[in-house]
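Long-time lurker, finally posting.

We've been working with histidine kinase (Dactylosporangium cerinum) and I want a structural starting point before designing mutants. I don't trust myself to interpret raw outputs, so I'm hoping someone here can both generate the structure tokens and explain anything notable. Sequence follows.
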Amino acid sequence: MNRFRSRLQELRWLAVGAAIGLPAPALLAVVAVSGPTGLVGVGVLLFAGAMWAVRRLAGAQRRRVGASPPYRPLTGTGWARLRTVVRDPATWRDLLWLPCQFGAGVGSLVLAVGLWLAAVQCLTAPALRALLPEPTGFDPAVLEWTGRSGPLTWVLVPVGAGLAVLAYWLPRHLIEAQTRLAAALLAPTAKARLTARVDRLTTTRAAAVDASAAELRRIERDLHDGAQARLVVLAMNLGVASDVIDADPAVAKALLTEARAGAGAALTELRDLVRGIHPPVLADRGLAAAVHALVLGSTVTVELDLRLDRRLAAPVEAAAYFATAEALTNAIRHSDARQVQVSLVDEGAAVRITVRDDGHGGADPSRGTGLLGIQRRLSAFDGGLRVSSPAGGPTVLEMELPCGS
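Top reply, 14 upvotes:
Generated this for you. Predicted structure of histidine kinase:
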């Protein structure tokens, strides 16, 4: 039964491929007619509409074969976007792919279905001859080929068996051929991949520089408004105490007590600031111990799954720690979660971090700075963040941080 379903799925895949390629003649005709006159009148609309349709068809085939889109980003006005489309090499690769898909898609479906029909007619040729001994208006093709000859109809039975085997075996290879065709013409070229990677690294470098500058400003502000102010008060109290210690020892003692308390508060703030920059436990004992210590201070129940058997590079450990801390903080503050699951798994080439909470959901990176901060932190290492947060929950954050092996 499963094999029967698999054969039906293969035929369905081929049918969709044929449907994708079927509009090719009409679209190519529109492009050919409107292209030379694309700068005037209705030609612009026809050309733009045809290119939009071509991209939609190519995108559908890419999704079926798992290829990533290679297009240049579209920005600016309608004219600027149209010029970008025309100058994009991927556009012309789409136009080259379209007639190939028409031939491969329609031809594959016709061949696959035709083989099954031919196999059935050949296998049933003797029965058809017995049921239709005289010519009719709807004679099967096998009876016309054999002239209703009894021996010849029986000869077609083993031929039908061979055709059935071929019809069973061939569709998966036709699918593979269409997949290779799409990969060759629709997937990004090496140059396009390199350009996209350079653009992405340029963007992430700028984001990392901005994040570093913002972090330095935060540290400066915390020092100025916190520890520095307390140390100034401490110095003033010590100065006044030294002036009045002979004349009024009681006042001097009170000032020294206040200075001692201020020194303790300043020390606590400095420790908190250092912990925010780079927790000592992270430097001393590694990522697993630092995340475990982070979870111990949580106000909600946290299930922890740590599969980290080695120390990673210090920048990677810091990025993973702070990304986990930010995700946990978001879950506690914004989602009303009662339970959070945190998982860190070392997969060799990357660390995979998953934070799942049972809150009300609705998390959106475009509406808050927390998730954007995580994205910027991970993007500096060419990592990524995936967010699944439907209304009503649960919220699942999946982070991947390349770390080498």
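Before you design anything, note these points.
The chain is about 70% helix and 10% strand.
The mean pLDDT is 78.
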